[in-house]
């Protein structure tokens, strides 16, 4: 549940973004606002969620005071259908709000609420589905609100930078608070806030333009009732995006150690995405193939809402222009009752 | 030689005969005379134009400038250096702004002269332009990978 200041910040961001555009005067702060909108329709073989499945408005604003200081805010309004709870869910959430100081490309620091960057998919796409090639987010990258497992939000301080040189090495170090007992929130003021830390390292060598390899590790202590949950997560990712090809893969493991009963739970998952933009008169078309797996630790109460995933999807993204895309997809996935189900989806995405 | 190899060679020969011969082309990377940077690597040039490198060594924000996406020079730059289609390039920058790494996408200008005038007037800018008949005297051509366009090793010549 959002506090009043967060709601006001969301409303402020929404108004700014809907006002749209960019304001710039000589030697004055630069303001930029924009956002994304998605509309999804699905039809399943069991006909349990036919029709409009999700509507989302994602707005963000940046205010650049000078070459060093800036502020970024992002808010999301979403209406989605919850298959487990069998009802519609409306949500307005502050996704990111932070102040950034940048000394150079070698060192920048963000203070506020931001993404952990643990899952590379989220680091790249944040919340927008317009930017991603397929319709659905891989199970690894789902937020807790979408029954995802990994801690994706983080409140605190995050420093990052790039090491000059032909290897394109980037680093990131964060410290602050991760998701708490309620995985959908990051408590800051409560006594039981969950201290967390993050390390990430990536490389994108000049010798292979478009290649990026990354590793990230996240550690935190979550105060659950009763006891303490020690969390240690690690992810490896590789991507190649050049000459119309998009190849992405990521593997992640989450280790939860419940100190009160000295039990360890392991959750693992991965995804692979292959896509290729066609050429010539068909350059607006990008067919794709996605494999998506997630195996949630059996019996872990903290991840009770997260579900296993075993799916593959194939579809086509069509870019009407640089701001509008239409995607059509066929997906085969395991339903909640264990049987496989087929889902046909259509998504309209816009950026503004 | 197997039948498959012969067939492959025939297809390659036929393709080469049908494709038009490409005109030699060069691109120049220009900065203001006041810019102190000595040169850029091809990797850093690519990083600037995909929004991964945002600052000059003195900490000032880089303002990249390019010709309209469908101009021959831009298409050459996108294809050979950035290895992106115009749509992927536009969406790359939508994402870069959204991630907060940059405040705005590259400044787009219509002509080479306009690009040169913009660079003259903005100390933090850099532009990729095509060849022209005039001699560039008001902006500085940057060496790429240590080579100027007159060198045989210049990487932005095809």
Structural description of this entry:
The complex is a heterodimer of chains A (352) and B (158). Helix content of chain A is 6%, strand content 59%. With 352 residues, chain A is mainly beta. In chain A, a hairpin with a 5-residue loop joins strand 7 and strand 8 (169-178). Chain B has 158 residues and is an alpha/beta fold. Helices cover 37% and strands 15% of the residues of chain B. Chain B has helices spanning 3-18, 42-50, 72-82, 86-98, 112-121, and strands at 27-32, 63-67, 107-109, 125-130, 139-141. In chain B, strands 3-2-4-1-5 form a five-stranded mixed sheet, with helices on both faces. Chain B starts with a helix and ends in a 17-residue tail after the last strand. At the A-B interface, strand 2, strand 3 and strand 5 of A face helix 2 and helix 4 of B.
Average pLDDT level of chain B: 87
Structural class of chain B: alpha/beta
Mean of all residue-level pLDDT scores of chain A: 86
User: How are the strands ordered across the major sheet of chain A?
Assistant: 2-3-4-5-6-7-8-9-10-11-12-13-14-15-16-17
Largest sheet of chain B: 5 strands, mixed
What is the first-to-last residue Cα distance of chain A?
Answer: 28 Å
- Element-by-element helix/strand order of chain A: HEEEEEEHEEEEEEEEEEE
Please compute the radius of gyration of chain B using only Cα atoms.
18 Å
Globular, elongated, flat, extended or rod-shaped: what is the shape of chain A? Answer: globular
Low-confidence stretches of chain B: 17-21
Shape of chain B: globular
């Amino acid at each position: 549940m959002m506090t009043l200041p967060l709601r006001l910040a969301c409303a402020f961001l929404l108004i700014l973004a809907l006002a749209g555009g960019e304001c710039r005067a000589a030697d004055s702060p630069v303001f930029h606002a924009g956002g994304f909108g998605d509309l999804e329709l699905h039809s399943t073989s069991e006909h349990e969620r036919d029709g409009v499945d999700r509507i989302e408005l994602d707005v963000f604003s940046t205010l650049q005071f000078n070459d060093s200081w800036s502020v970024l805010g992002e808010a999301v309004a979403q209406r989605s259908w919850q298959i487990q709870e069998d009802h519609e869910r409306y949500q307005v959430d502050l996704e990111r709000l932070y102040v950034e100081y940048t000394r150079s490309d070698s060192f920048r620091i963000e203070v506020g609420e931001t993404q952990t960057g643990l899952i590379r998919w989220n680091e790249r796409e944040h919340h927008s589905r317009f930017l991603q090639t397929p319709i659905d987010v891989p199970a690894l990258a789902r937020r807790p609100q979408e029954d995802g497992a990994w801690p994706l939000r983080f409140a605190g301080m995050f420093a990052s930078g790039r090491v000059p040189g032909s290897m394109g090495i980037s680093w990131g170090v964060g410290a602050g608070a991760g998701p708490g007992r309620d995985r959908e929130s990051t408590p800051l003021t409560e006594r039981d806030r969950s201290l967390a830390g993050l390390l990430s390292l990536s490389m994108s060598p000049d010798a292979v333009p478009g290649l990026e390899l990354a590793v990230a590790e996240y550690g935190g202590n979550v105060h659950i009732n009763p006891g303490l949950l020690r969390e240690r997560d690690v992810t490896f990712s590789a991507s190649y995006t050049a000459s119309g090809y998009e190849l992405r893969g990521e593997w992640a493991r989450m280790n939860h150690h419940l100190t009160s009963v000295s039990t360890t739970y392991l959750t693992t998952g991965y995804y692979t995405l292959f896509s290729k933009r066609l050429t010539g008169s068909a350059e607006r078309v990008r067919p794709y193939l996605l494999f998506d797996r997630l195996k949630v630790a059996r019996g872990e109460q903290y991840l009770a809402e997260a579900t296993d995933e075993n799916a593959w999807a194939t579809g086509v993204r069509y870019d009407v222009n640089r701001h509008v895309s239409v995607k059509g997809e066929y997906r085969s996935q395991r339903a909640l009752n264990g049987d496989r189900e087929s889902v046909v989806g259509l998504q309209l995405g816009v950026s503004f | 030689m197997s039948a498959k190899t012969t067939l492959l060679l025939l297809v390659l020969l036929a393709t080469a005969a049908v494709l038009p011969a490409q005109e030699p082309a060069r691109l120049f990377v220009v900065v203001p005379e006041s810019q102190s940077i000595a040169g850029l690597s091809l990797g850093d040039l690519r990083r600037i134009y995909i929004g991964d490198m945002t600052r000059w060594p003195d900490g000032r924000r880089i303002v990249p400038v390019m010709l309209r996406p469908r101009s021959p020079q831009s298409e050459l730059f996108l294809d050979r250096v950035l290895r992106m289609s115009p749509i992927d390039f536009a969406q790359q920058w939508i994402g870069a702004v959204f991630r907060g790494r940059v405040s705005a996408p590259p400044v787009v200008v219509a002509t080479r002269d306009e690009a040169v005038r913009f660079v003259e007037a903005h100390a933090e800018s850099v532009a990729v332009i095509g060849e022209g008949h005039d001699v560039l005297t008001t902006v500085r051509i940057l060496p790429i990978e240590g080579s100027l366009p007159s060198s045989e090793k210049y990487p932005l010549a095809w």
